[in-house]
Structures are given as C-alpha cells and as structure tokens.
Amino acid sequence: MKSFFTILVALITLTVLEGCKKDFLDRPPQDQLIAEVFYQTAEQVRAGTAPLYNIVWFDYNDKAALSFGDARGGNMISNDRDPFYKFAVASTDVNTLLPAYKSFYKIIAQSNQTMLNIKNNATAVDQSVKNGAIAECRFMRAMGYYYLVSNWGAVPIIYDNSTQMADLSITRNTIESVWQFIIMDLTYAAKNLPATAFQDGRLTKYSAEGMLARMYLTRAGLNSTGTRKQSDLDSAKLLAADVCHNSPNQIEKNYADLFKSANHNSSHNNPESLFSLQWMPIKDPWGINNSFQAYMARNGDITGSWDGWGAAHGCSANLIKYYIDHPADSNRRKATFMFNDDFYPEIRKDLGGYHYTANEIANTKKYIIGSVADNGGKGSEMCEYINTYMLRLAEVYLIYAEAILGNSPSTSDAEALKYYNAVRQRAMPGVTPATSITFDDIFQEQRIETVFEGKYWYDLLRLYYFNPTKAKSIINAQDKGAYTLTHNTGTESPRQYTVTYNTIVYPVTDQTIYLPLPEAELVKAPNLAKEPVAFDFSKIKD
C-alpha cells in the first residue's frame, strides 16, 4: 500500500504535467481534459482527495485556528491576536479573517470539484471506491461549512462551482439551512466511508460518526430556550456510542504523548485520532507543511533554528486561575503550557533538555516538539513534523456523556460516568471517579482536555445556541489581562506559584458573537449584505 505522502506527491506530479502553477492544489482543477485522463484507477481517485487533508486547510491552521477557537474562547493571550478575544475584529483584517474565510471556501470548492471529477470521469472505477472518495469530499465540505456557520452565522451554500461561483446574485443562506446541509453531508459520509481506513490518516465511518455526533449535539440547541431538541441529542448519543464501543481507535495512555511526534506511527498519526490534518515534512509546494510551531514556540532555543516567534502568545489569565485552583490537573497543564521552572527532556535533547525560565507569560507547549534533531531529522523551519487533531476519541467520549445527560440537571448513568471518568482519570491518575456529573462538569472537562486545539469557542457557541445568557456570562467573566507567574522554589507535588494579575475583561454581545464578513468579499459580492434566505434543498441530490 502506498503511503499518504506518496499519493500526495503523485497528485503534485499530475499538477506539473498540467502545466499549472504550484497554487493548483489551492483551487479546483480547471482542465476537464486532464481530469478525464487522470481519474481512471482507484489509486488516482484516492489521489484526487489527498489535498483535502492538508493544503486547503493551511490558511486556517496557520493563524486562524487559535485566533478563532482559543483567543475568542478566552484561552489565549497574545499581542497580535487580541482583536479576537477583545471582540473587536475589523472587517478589513487581511492577516487572519480574510484568509480563513477564503480557506473554508477553498475546502468547499475543492471538495465540489473533486466530486464532480469522480462522478464524470471515474467510470471504470469500482463504485465502492468512488462512493468512499465522494464521502471524503462531503465530509470535508461539511467541515468547511461547520467553521463558516460557527464563525459567521448565515453564509452562502455553494454546492456547484461551475454555476454558482460566477453568480453575483448569490446571497447568504440561513443558519438553519447550513446546519441541515452539514448534517446531510456527514450522514452520507458515515454511510459510505469504510470502517477501517484503506490508508493511515484517511477518514473512516467512525470519523464521520464522531463528527456527526458533535454536529447533532451542537444543533440540538439551535433556536432553543434552555431545553435542547431531544431527537438531535438522541442522534448524538447513538452515533457517539458506536464510536466509543466499536471504533478501532484507542485512547493514548499518557496525555502528553498525544503531542509528541515520537509517539505517533510512521505517518505521524496517533491511535486516538479520528480526524487529523495530514501535514508533510517538506515545504514544496508551500501549504502542505505545518507552520504551527514556528508561530507558537517561544523562541529559537526551542526550535533550534531561526523560527519560534511565540513569546507573546500563551495561556490566558482565566486559564491560569483554573490551573492554580486545580493542581491535580498538572499533567494536562504541563503538556499544554510552560510554567516558570518547567523542564522538558524531550525538547533540545542535544542540550540535555529544555528548562523554561520565563515568568511574564505561560507560553505554549501543546504541539511544540522541539528541533528537527529531536524528531528524527524530520521537518524543518516552518515545517513541524506533527499532524493537527481535528477530532480525538477523548472528545467523542465527552460528547457521549453530554448526549446521555441531555436536558437533565445531572446524571449517574453508568455509560456517561464510564467515558467521562476515562478522560478525567487519564489526565489525573488516581483521582476519585465521579459518581454524578452535570453539564458544567462535562463542559469544563471538554475545555481543559482540548485547550489550544482550536475548539473552545465552538463549545461556547453550542451553549450560546440554547442558553445565550449563560454563554455570555462565562465569556464576560474571563480575565484576559496580563500577569506574572513564578514557581515558589522548593515546592513540588503539588507545585505552588506566586501569581500577580492585571485583571481586564472584554464583554461579548449578541452582535459580536459572530465575526464580520470580510470587506473584500462584500465588495466583490455585495448581495452578501442582504438578509439570509432558506436554502432550496430540492436543487441538489443526496
């Protein structure tokens, strides 16, 4: 079986044969004659979907993932992403806002075009292979719309590039329509993806079921007041149960090992991953590489090179308070943020390890893996040798617990407790298992488990859908000011710290829950400013 890397290189080779620029993988193929020649074998069909796992996601992963998911969520302090947690993002922002918006539509456009190529040209390929590839496309298209609807609310549903991209009369579709479209796509994916990936890193039916469970759990609260829609909660529960009970994926025993390349397989995937972006350890063409560490590592002492520009990025004061109040959660904390006096033997092994001495901010550790030498010689500057989790099995465990809880104030259900405690006890070995849990218990566990994975804002939005008052009160109470944090020498197990806070909060409103549409898009498509309309689903075939 050829590796994912080999297949992606094959597709890049096809690009060269087409005589196109290297940005070809950023956009749908335009030359139908080449498509007719290419999609003739199962391997070629699968090569056609390979770019959907990395290059189209680059502009999201590069800066937007943390800006949207963690800065807006109140997990992150930063000197250049502060407009996101201050809820003061300008529509003219071309550094993060516009590239991310365009990135999600690149994902959608590439998915649409690849599906069309497969349907029109893969006539000699087994139907199950075609269905599986189309399912990959529809999964990715659904993900593009998930991030669009979660960050901008009502957006246009583009399902046919050839007719819609040139239609200047296109308007936004309602939030309800976008959610229906997302669930329709993921339902198809769950029915047509294989139970076992034909190639490491590829999607499976469990990837789709886990993601669909997340979507149902979120949509359950849409247009609700306090009580979520039971049928959506039931769907989330059923899907998450199948993943928890039958998926071949496994929970990593040690939380910190999730974010070390040495604990991943030859394709740098961890068994806990249900869906990860598949980055390559090369930078040509630009965009198939993971630039996360370059921006988030404190300095070159960590990366061993000229990148490492993350000294001003790190843990929010709000999260510092959680970690200080919960010293038993030190395993997850140390794997996520560097506190004063922390030591990491896996980083800069050539120097005997890395001792973190800063105290003016707790810098990023999650996904920070050190120098190229620390990672078997793989990767380079701006090209980190680790994949990006988009859905882990641990999250599905917590989705399952929350779906079981549903609208009840608390639950002692054995299944809910089993999976909630599995996540909690992995993080804090020896902690007393919970015997009853509430929404707030699960909600907090979801936050701390996935900090700096670009996720918390979407949990807050899920809460906002059915309890906007509570969601806004959580956000409005978050301390996002500066602080200093110093380890009290001699204190261990648990450590004690001296912390000084310069408390400041930035309230959110119903008007700033969603990001502004990029001005550049409004100029090109002024109809985006019109009121959204319901999507006509009779136009498309499932």
- Overall, the morphology is globular
Structural class computed from helices and strand pairing: mainly alpha
Beta-strand content estimate:
5-15%
Give average pLDDT, whole number.
Answer: 92
Q: Tally of extended strands?
A: 12
3D structure, described in words:
- With 542 residues, the chain is mostly helical.
- Helix content is 45%, strand content 7%.
- It contains 21 helices and twelve strands.
- The radius of gyration is 23 Å and the shape is globular.
- The two termini are 31 Å apart.
Structure at a glance:
This protein is mainly alpha-helical.
Features:
single chain; 542 residues; mainly alpha; two-stranded antiparallel sheet; 12 strands; 45% helix; 7% strand; globular; disordered N terminus
Write the layout of secondary structure elements.
Layout lengths: L3 H15 L13 H7 L3 H8 L8 H14 L4 E2 L4 H4 L11 H25 L5 H26 L8 H4 L10 H18 L12 H15 L10 H17 L26 E5 L14 H5 L3 H4 L10 E2 L1 H9 L4 H7 E2 L4 E2 L9 E2 L7 E2 L23 E5 H13 L4 E2 L2 H14 L9 E2 H11 L6 H11 L1 H9 L6 E5 L9 E5 L17 H6 L18
Helix pairs in contact: 1-3, 3-7, 4-6, 6-7, 7-9, 9-10, 10-11, 10-16, 11-16, 16-17, 16-18, 19-20
